[in-house]
Amino acid sequence: xxxxxxxxxxxxxxxxxxxxxxxxLGEANNTYIRFLDGLxxxxxxxxxxxxxxxxxxxxxxxxxxxxxxxxKRQVTVFWLSIWEGFFKVAIFMPEKSRLDAMNLPLNDEVKxxxxxxxxxxxxxxxxxxxxxxxxxxMLEALFMIADxxxxxx
Length: 153
Description:
By secondary structure, the chain is α+β, with helices and mostly antiparallel strands. It has helices spanning 18-25, 29-41, 98-102, 108-116, 139-150; strands at 45-51, 56-66, 72-83, 86-94, 126-133. It has one domain (18-150): Aspartate Aminotransferase, domain 1. A hairpin with a 5-residue loop joins strand 2 (56-66) and strand 3. It is globular, with a radius of gyration of 16 Å.
């Protein structure tokens, strides 16, 4: 893994088009393309926006569904950011779902990420699971956790 990690897409005037992302990711762009292809299979769409507080473009992974009473519902499944040579996907899980997440058929490395993740503050009852994606190695686990998150109501 690289020791120098720099978040990119910091200019609000330059939208994160595919050629810009490809240049930023380099070799990891193939993984990014497979990730994008997988989103459709998991009923998740990306919505890019520039956030002034973090001074960067971030994408939300959104899942829409129809609620029990017929209303349209939406959940943010993950946040995506582009870094030099890789991309990060952060899934914020409710603390009450940690044990259920640990029972998913995941490899030991991902289970360790879940068990070691620290809860965010005292009021926010969430913990982050952050994937740094340089290759396809973690895509299957990422989509498994994303599907799990979609179904937490």
